[in-house]
């Protein structure tokens, strides 16, 4: 099962410039997690800050 994507995420991935900014933010976060400005992407005048998930642990059941 796949998680649903929001319209904003679809728009970012469909736009070449925005997706490039997202990849640069991911690289910046990996190099220096404390660099808030490097992890920020501006879309429609709104600042979106990339956060990192530490890991994925599937639920056993």
Shape: globular
Relative helix content: 25-40%
So how many helices? Answer: 2
What is the terminal-to-terminal distance? 16 Å
- Averaged pLDDT, please? 80
The unreliable regions are none
How many whole angstroms does the radius of gyration measure?
14 Å
Number of strands: 2
What series of H and E elements makes up the topology? HHEE
Largest pleated sheet: 2 strands, antiparallel
Q: Which structural category do the helix and sheet elements fall into? A: alpha+beta
Content of β-strand: 5-15%
- The neighbouring-strand order within the major sheet is 1-2
Topology:
Layout lengths: L6 H8 L1 H16 L8 E4 L2 E4 L12
Antiparallel strand pairs: 1-2
Q: What's the short story on this structure?
A:
With 61 residues, the chain is α+β, with helices and mostly antiparallel strands. It is 39% helix and 13% strand.
Essential attributes:
61 residues, alpha+beta, two-stranded antiparallel sheet, 2 helices, 2 strands
Could you walk me through the main structural features you see in this protein, from its secondary elements to its overall organization?
With 61 residues, this protein is of the alpha+beta class. The chain is 39% helix and 13% strand. It is built from two helices and two strands, in the order ααββ. Strands 1-2 form a two-stranded antiparallel sheet. The protein starts with 6 loop residues before the first helix and ends in a 12-residue tail after the last strand. The model has no long low-confidence stretch (mean pLDDT 80).
